[in-house]
Amino acid sequence: MKTVRVWVVLAIGCALVVAVAADAARLPGVKTPSRNLSCFYVPIKPTIHGNLLCDIHEASYLRALQRRCMTTAGLDWHGFSLPWNRKGEVVCSGGALYDMGRDTPAFTVVPYGKRWLYRSFSCISRVTGLTCTNGHGHGLSLSRESWRTW
């Protein structure tokens, strides 16, 4: 009887591991060849839409954005977001904006002058920076010197 119980517990445990693994998601994304700029797609569940979350490692304005987030919201600066249906925005957050324990960004390094496409998003990699747009004509442009959203 103990042997049967052990196998049942193991079978249930394995089924749970498979179920959790099935829910894990690879989040498609883009990086510039310098690896300084990156964006990745995060689905908005349970809808069919999503946002791009973008990050920059080195830029002249990073401290100013951190101060802005701390002053206006009391939160950390976490990059930029380009929603599927409106203009890009600075993201101030108290934590990660996706399930880091489950989901994993999967970046493609896109050569300068080339375009990355995913769903309604399009990003072009240039030596001067990364520009992404959504299907509604809104976007964001990031470089070491400046950023803008529209």
How many structural units, i.e. domains? 1
Radius of gyration: 19 Å
Oligomerization state of this entry?
A: single chain
Given the C-alpha coordinates, what overall shape results? Answer: globular
The amount of beta strand, in percent, is 35-45%
The computed structural class is alpha+beta
Helix content class: 10-25%
> What topology, given as strand order, has the largest sheet?
5-4-3-2-1-6
The total count of helices amounts to 2
Main sheet, how many strands, which sense, barrel? 6 strands, mixed
Given as residue ranges, the uncertain stretches (5+ residues, pLDDT < 50) are 1-21
Order of helices and strands: HEEEHEEEEEEEE
Task: Explain the overall architecture.
- Helix content is about 25%, strand content about 40%.
- The protein is of the alpha+beta class and about 150 residues long.
- It has one domain.
- The strands form two sheets. A six-stranded mixed beta sheet has the order 5-4-3-2-1-6. Strands 7-8-9-10-11 form a five-stranded antiparallel beta sheet, with no helix packed on it.
